[in-house]
Amino acid sequence: MIMSMLITLQTAIADRLRQGMGQMVREVAADLDETGLCGLQLAHGDYSSRLTPGQASPTINPQALARLPALWTVAGGITSSQPQSSQRLRYKANALFTVVVGDRLQIDAAYKGAGVWQLVYAARRLLASQDFGLAINPLLPEKVRPLGQAPRDGQPWSLVACDFSTYWLDEALDNGHWPAPQGDADPDALFRAFGGRLETPAQPAQSVQLNYVPAGAAGVKAQDTVNAPKS
C-alpha cells in the first residue's frame, strides 16, 4: 500500500500542476530525481543538494537546463511511521514530496515567462491543503530550498525545491496471517499476480446466536438466532 499511495499521489500532484500552470512551463513531469537534475553525486547516502549557507551553488545538469521553464515532482518517500492503535494494526505513514521549479532567476520586459519565484508561488498556491480526493491528510507546504543556478542564453536560470508533507493510514496484516485479496482493485492483488502466498478471505458472518440470562438466574433461560440477510 505504501508504494501504491506514493505513486498515486505523485501522479495526482503532477496532474494538478499540469492543469493549473497553463503556459507558464514547457513541461510538468513526475518521478525525476533532484540530484540528477542538479548534476550532483550522492554523498554518504544523502542528497548533496541539501544546501547550507556558505556552500557554492551546484551546477544544473545541462539536459535539465535546456528544458526550463519546467516543474518536476519528486517522491521523497516515507519519512517515518507510527502505530495508531493498541493492536499495532494501523500505522500513520508520514510522506514527503518535492516539486522542483525551474525558470529564469531574473525577469525583464523582454522575457515572457513568469520567473522562478513566481513559479514557486504558483506551485504552493495550487498544492497547499489539497488531498486530490485521496485518503490522505491535505498537503502541508514545507521548506523552499534553492538547488542551483546556471547561465543559459546569457541569463541566469535557477532551480528551487518546494517541499510538501502529508500522511495517511496503512493497515497491517494480523500477526501470522497472509494477504487475502478480494478483487482486482484490492492493493493486495499484487501478491496474487506474482504468485505470492495467500490465504482465503474471511467469510462474512451468517448468523448470530443470542443467549438471554435474567439477573440472578443460574443459566440460560432463552436463546435466539439472527440470520444475516441474503444478498
Q: Any chance you could write out the topology, listing elements then pairs?
A:
Layout: H1 2-21, E1 27-30, H2 34-38, E2 42-43, E3 46-47, H3 62-65, E4 70-83, E5 90-104, H4 116-127, E6 140-152, E7 155-171, H5 189-193, E8 207-212, E9 222-227
Parallel strand pairs: 1-4
Antiparallel strand pairs: 2-3, 4-5, 5-7, 6-7, 8-9
Structure commentary:
- This protein is of the alpha+beta class.
- The protein has a domain at 5-42 and 56-171: 2-Layer Sandwich (STM4215-like).
- It has 5 helices and 9 strands; from the N terminus they run αβαββαββαββαββ.
- The chain has helices spanning 2-21, 34-38, 62-65, 116-127, 189-193; strands at residues 27-30, 42-43, 46-47, 70-83, 90-104, 140-152, 155-171, 207-212, 222-227.
- It has a 5-stranded mixed beta sheet with strand order 1-4-5-7-6. It has a two-stranded antiparallel ribbon with strand order 2-3.
- A hairpin with a 2-residue loop joins strand 2 (42-43) and strand 3.
- Helix 1 (2-21) crosses helix 4.
- It is elongated.
- The relative contact order is 0.15.
- The model is unreliable at 41-56 (pLDDT under 50).
- It holds the Pfam family Phage_Mu_Gp37.
- InterPro entries: Phage_Mu_Gp37 (IPR014972).
